[in-house]
Design goal:
Structural class: alpha/beta
Mean pLDDT: 94
Bound molecules: adenosine monophosphate, zinc ion
CATH class of the largest domain: Alpha Beta
Length: 479
Amino acid sequence: MTLRIFNTLGMRKEEFKPLREGEVRIYACGPTVYDFIHIGNARAFIVADVVRRYLEYKGFKVTLVSNITDIDDKIIRRAQETGLSIQEIGEIYSDAYFEDLAALNIKKPSINPRATQHISDIIMAVQKLIEKGYAYEVEGDVYFDILKFDDYGKLSGNKMEALEAGARIEVNPKKKNPADFALWKACKEGELGWHSPWGWGRPGWHIECSTMAMKYLGETFDIHMGGKDLIFPHHENEIAQAEALTGKPLARYWIHNEWLTVNGQKMSKSLGNFITVKDALKMYSPQVLRFFLISAHYRSPVDFNKESMVAAKANVERIFSALERLISLKERDKNGEEDEELISQVQEAKRKFEEAMDDDFNTPLAIAAIFEIVKAINIYVDRNDEIGTEAKKEVYNVFKTLVEDILGIKIEIKKKYLEGREEAILKNLMEIILEVRQEMRRRKEWKISDEIRDKLQKIGFIIEDTPKETRWRLKEETH
Ligand code: AMP
Ligand code: ZN
């Protein structure tokens, strides 16, 4: 089946065709590392992760490049506030970012280029833009001249006139046009910077991304992603810079995710309505958090509130409990008639899952297909206490592929390890403990043997010594 993607460039769904057969190259804007990421940022990274996982499932070799912005006004401010160096701030928060990715079961991007390690590539790109007449230097700053780039505004739909009107308030006498943007910013001696043909300075944010994207993915790649705030000006400017340089489209499909909101408002640092991934994981499991973040389509907002989190938790429990029930079924050699029926129901749900994901990564519909499998398993387990070994394996494997491999919700089931053997294990363990105690009694080590009995009693066992043997049972639980 063909995959269709909503392309912000053109604002319509298009059939996805990669540039190179069997291969997909993606660039997703990464974090500015000045603080811990919040679950709004996590939404953007999980959307990219699910896109990547689904394309991998479809058999593509995926290269996902996601940058780390480690030089920026916010980082500099943070360094001043804390007394730490800019490098230290960058290191602390990029380590924390990778920790959060791992905790949320987000696959590590194939390459994580850092802006500060690509300064010479950036300087070269800026120089070339000046040579080609797209950029100009003023007192150590370099600006992109948007009037020179005819296609400016093609991604965001921001027309030049609107830009000029909107930008009138900004007074920067250095710019020819208020909407021109900085490719290189002069900075004072003593501030973090690099030598350049225009003096001591540092790169602008937009040129970092387009330079690193093209370095690792080529002049034109398949997909460029990020949250919708990046459409303008960040991605519009990336297009202008890159296409002015190469004369070729930078990316073919532009994917932008909607907000994670709180009471309908964007979760953001500046509004102070954010919760970091680290804090959220103290309250919810990674599975619940991930489920919640993909429960809405990526182009719809998703609101973080108590009810939605209670619902996400209940849904994850429903999914895992069906899987536990499936696993605890006894196995028999041959598949029966009902087993075949279960398999065909599961295959049908898998087909619906793929259909949903093929339609612009429609995760809520894909999740609905998972619940069809949950329902089929529950009906089966209500009626049977055995299942054919092959059927069990097949249903489990489909489940694992869809839930864990594609949606990234790691399967976690207690019974997977014990598989209904808890009782037998408990009996065997008690036998060993009581044998040791018996031996102590034989040796008249009364103190140790009494201690073992007392400790067992404390954790809920009743131990009775009779002349013939020692018996044990569990104390009735009282609530
Ligand atoms: P930043 O570090 O601010 O550049 O953000 C990293 C990524 O998170 C970008 O793709 C943003 O668009 C995205 N992002 C930030 N806030 C939210 C939010 N509340 N909901 C969804 N995505 C967001
Ligand atoms: Zn970017």
